[in-house]
Amino acid sequence: MKKLVHALLFILPLALIGQLKSPSEFLGYELGTQFTRHHQVVDYYQYLAQQEPKRMQLMQYGETNERRPLLLAYISTESNMKNLEEIRKVHLKNIHGEAAPNKAIVWLSYNVHGNESVSTEASMQTIYELLTNKKDYLEDLVIIMDPCINPDGRDRYVNWYNQYKNSPFNVDPNSKEHHEGWWSGRSNHYMFDLNRDWAWLTQVESRHRLKQYNKWLPHVHVDFHEQGVDNPYYFAPAAEPYHEVITDFQRDFQETIGKNHAKYFDANGWFYFTKERFDLLYPSYGDTYPTYNGGIGMTYEQGGSGRAGLGIINRIGDTLTLKDRIAHHHTTGLSTVEVASKNVEKLNTEFRKFYSQKNFTHQNFILNGNTDKLEALANLLDQHQIKYDKGTNASYKGFYYATSKTGTLRASENSLIVSTDQTRGSLAKVLFEPKAMLSDSVTYDITAWSLPYAYGLDALATESNVQKTTFQPSNSTYGIGDTNSYGYLADWNSMKDAKFLAELLNHKIRVRYAQKPFSLDGVNYDRGSLIIISADNKNVPDFTQILDRASKKFAKSLTPANTGFVESGKDFGSSYVEVLQELKIAVLSGEPASTLRFGEIWHFFEQQLNYPITVLDESYFNRVDLSKYDILILPDGWGYYSFITEKVAQKIKDWVSNGGKLIAMGGAVDGLAKQKGFGVKEKEYQRDSTVNLQAFDTSEREYIKSTISGAIFKTTVDTTNPLAYGYEEPYFTLKLGDRSYEYLDGGNAVYLAEGQNIPVSGFAGSEAKKKIAETLIFGTERMGRGHVIYMIDNPLFRGFWENGKLFFANALFMVN
Ligand SMILES: [Zn+2]
């Protein structure tokens, strides 16, 4: 068996180094012969910072969910480090052409996917060499290194591997040490993929990191990854499609860097590929996000990942070791720094140019709508340093999002205006534009994410100037005021309202809600409006304080009501006014579910809604007494056909019939549909059967006919269905595939009506469009005394589709 060539890079000219210990010397084992636990990595970085205080600074920029430190190491020459803050300021001034910097900033990010575990190991070797025999590179550079973006995931993998590895390690791919299992280390604590979160910032690691990233906006950013064990190495230039805001220089410089890597890889006889698979479109990656902020953002992929362990035999019989993987990542890391060091002037000139090009077709985005949703959006924009203003009373023409056609929209002082003529104009364009232009429809990820759709706002993209006034945060006061009211009323139309309700239920407050619209004191209240009656809560000793605090905490307006006798609609004692009390909620985890889809639900409850759940693992699900729970959630996944046996289906049906509420998402619906007694039915669909005489080489193109790569569709909503309380038409859904179900016999809350199978944004293949025509998206079915809720699309996908979250909250609270 041929062994991959080991790098000679580890044999260092020791005489030049002085006292500084290499990772191997510090750790007490040769780098690549063990996985290094995160705390040991932290120790090594701290050691370096102590030894080299004049050339290195280490900062902790945050903490993970599991309380591991997040670190950044800054390294450069002694004189640069003395002026670090000045270098940073001068660099940022260059954005506005107010300075001519002579230093460049390179940011290296490691181990965003926890089980792509070579990265952090390689980072230690790389920083060591930059401080020793490659220190000449640093004359005009500041290097910022994040040794581990995802420490929780990394340690999950490393600890697992250490527990299961053979001694010595076994290269047989069948051995347990190469089969990580469901709870893998790829994602963070909440099973979120941090390399899909740069733009949405749903995760604590991303939010902390972005604060630091925005202070520096590096010229070059590398995100170190691993791909499957049978792949060689991937580096820049990236594959098509490229987003249209990417400049020629950004394209070209990737090529410059790639060619430098190739030089070293060729010399060592290592394999690699470029310009394939990893494109530059979806804005939430560690390569695209930096690119849309003026940098050269790149993904490097070593073959390996969680399967590889310390060594594994690959498809062609070669042994791939951790040492090989370290050598490769280490080589590209240093080569990147080398190229940057030779192009400091060019990087600075082009960085300035990137920020001066501001002639995008759409000059402004006008956003109207629910204040909670506008607030949620403004909060995201603040984190990205995208500026916004308030509108003034005037009408504008442009692309109207609701109809996908030219239209007019009236702006007012309640409108939010986002201009592309601002420092972060490119990023604003990428995030807001109605359709991302695709230079190729074969892409690695979703093709649509436009924020006005995601946040459920009425929006117009206009080519004209828009009158603006400075945004002032609202100075409304909250709290309950009069503590002797008969009751208090609150509207129900946003995720913020759901958080407010969860807070009250957590404090054992009894809340009612209206199933019919009503009016009181001349004010109209929609379905779902919350009714909190003092007498209902007479046994809650600090009822008024709790309510007052919650109102202030969530900036939630409450209207006092002095009577239960309404002017129109149903009185508060009516059976159309439902009572809500504490709910016991269970969520299935394990094999049938996808880790990511489970994680989205877990995160939704613990970090967004703040409401407790019980996690039931599939391994003992059959032994659990479901009668202890009011709600059971089956997350999307692939394993439901085997998990939902006749016996499991019966158990679930019995429980639902006795008053339980089942929420079935994606693949779980597929599993249920195969069993008797559920009203959901897969759409019968005839694939185009004409014989295909296209050339073999177009098979990839052929395949995408049946795919929907994350595209946005306009839907029809039955706003009288409790699942849709608080919504107005139109609702735009993000479809991630061609899963298709017939309309239900009643209870179709959201669906694609005739003609709605054409995406308003993003790519859907011709066959996929036919298949999803006139199908269900979200629906409810009554079963005995309980309910089944079907979610064909996923409103919690990556936690960023803000306007979908209320559907999920309605499924919990309003469907009764
Ligand atoms: Zn990765």
UniProtKB/TrEMBL annotation:
Q: Name one GO molecular function term.
A: zinc ion binding
> So what family is this one in?
Belongs to the peptidase M14 family.
Which cofactors, by name?
Zn(2+)
Which SUPFAM superfamilies does this entry report, sorted A to Z? Class I glutamine amidotransferase-like, Zn-dependent exopeptidases
Source organism of the structure:
Maribacter flavus
Q: Does the keyword Hydrolase apply?
A: yes
Q: Which UniProt keywords apply?
A: Carboxypeptidase, Hydrolase, Metalloprotease, Protease, Zinc
- Tell me the Gene Ontology biological-process terms attached to this UniProt entry: proteolysis
Q: Which InterPro entries match?
A: Class_I_gatase-like, Peptidase_M14
Question: Where's the Peptidase M14 domain?
Answer: 34-354
In terms of CDD domains, this protein maps to: A4_beta-galactosidase_middle_domain, M14-like
Keyword check for Transmembrane, yes or no: no
Q: What protein does this entry describe?
A: Zinc carboxypeptidase
What GO cellular-component annotations does this UniProt entry give? extracellular space
